[in-house]
């Protein structure tokens, strides 16, 4: 959803630098929301100046270059993904109070805004936007006039709000103060020297500080240049834990790559390697992160439910194969947004594993809260330190993919699969379903994955790019896979939908003759994930037969197959080779061409690879 940043400083921290801090933060947060952007600054004369524009952040930057805004030491900024009201200048944030002395920005959805708007209009208020955010700005402005304390005014208003929100607010009468509040939407504090920061994630301020504090559910924060005060919504003081940000601002820059996605695909080997790093000792997996649950409790687990959305759900499907194989615990993979609405059967012997790159995915957060209330053990897999979902879970295994800016996930997906495999091997150890020798063999396979991904990138990228350029007029692509190849097919189809805006569907290859083969007509492109001829399930000849069946009906077949698989060559129009790997480890390699293909086809069509239309990186509302 939206990206937010707040800043307060003093003369010692740098004279009048709010605009630079806000725009730098918004640039790094643009992936969170990108149909309008705006800033508000209390200048040195004590007045609020605002500037906001529909369109990409560059539109705002160009406007500020032509018509500079007076700088100051207090400011808030916002980059928006539209919910209430379209992407227009008037709907962009910040929004002002009726007297123009208070500015407010907002992430999330205020579900009772229509009722509150009607209340305001009944008392003579004039609203100039279609947003729920302006309603909040007018309410806080009125409350401030009554109580003359910005923190108290915001506290009184949030008590009336329903839904998911993060609010930042500042007032001309209190320069050097920004107040924030959050419910079911992220907010992080950056701790500086004579300056402090707020952001929807640490990217907002990582250029200036590595010290951060995450704000909890239904909590507020008031930042001044030399102080940070955190309370709950009732005004009670709250202590929060500080953490260090593990990456710097340069990690979120393109570094010469054509897009963030191109950079992030190039980092896939590193994402897998870093997620393994420190979690293997003497050839065995040791996940100290699981200690809050405890090995005794894990040994007694009789069912695992993986909850996730989108790409993360496909990572969960791959994790299901590995965890069941190694731990012999039944695993279900459920879409987070469906999980809690069907009254799932959960006991204290159920382990719920949530997967979210951002740790703020609202549907997944709600599933975690539901599982916790039902008495399940809850483990999260997340890429973002201090995020809400890890904080509301009993244990967390952080992936170490580094910042992922492109909206469509690539390296984070592979890191999630890696983390799930580590969990599976750990469970196999504590349950005694895997011998040490078996675990070491699988660890060797897993540790070999980064180098093999690097080989796929070096060998196949140019070929896939050329293939994509030939296919810019393609209207539909089908994907087929079996066993662990099936989630890979689903992931490939999703990337094509997200990036190239064409019809794409993934199918289990065994389902072909149960319906999908009716879609095959001359020229239909089908990408097939071919299992290894060494596959222990003997699925290779079945998939080769599927290829023959669709070729006979005119399909154009692109096969992703193991190097040296001669049986595929006579029946595929194109073969993209991947290195040899064990059956459970092939998906790490087969999915990489899918990521490259989606990116290259979108680029060949002249589309925005990093920010696909209608999508945001973190979906923080249901």
TrEMBL record:
Molecular function terms, GO-annotated: carbohydrate derivative binding; glutamine-fructose-6-phosphate transaminase (isomerizing) activity
Domain SIS: 294-433, 467-612
Keywords attached to this entry: Aminotransferase, Cytoplasm, Glutamine amidotransferase, Repeat, Transferase
A biological process from GO: fructose 6-phosphate metabolic process
Gene3D superfamilies: Glucose-6-phosphate isomerase like protein, domain 1, Glutamine Phosphoribosylpyrophosphate, subunit 1, domain 1
Reactions mediated catalytically: D-fructose 6-phosphate + L-glutamine = D-glucosamine 6-phosphate + L-glutamate
EC number(s) given by UniProt: 2.6.1.16
Location of this chain's protein in the cell: Cytoplasm
Chief location of this protein within or outside the cell: cytoplasm
Keyword Cytoplasm: yes
InterPro entries: GATase_2_dom, GFAT, GFAT_N, GlmS/AgaS_SIS, GlmS/FrlB_SIS, Ntn_hydrolases_N, SIS_dom, SIS_dom_sf
Domain Glutamine amidotransferase type-2 per the UniProt entry, residue ranges: 2-226
Residues the record marks as active site: 2 (nucleophile), 617 (for fru-6p isomerization activity)
Pfam assignment, any one: GATase_6
GO cellular component terms attached to this protein's record: cytosol
Stated role: Catalyzes the first step in hexosamine metabolism, converting fructose-6P into glucosamine-6P using glutamine as a nitrogen source.
Subunit structure, as described in the record: Homodimer.
Protein name per the record: Glutamine--fructose-6-phosphate aminotransferase [isomerizing]
Gene name tied to this protein: glmS
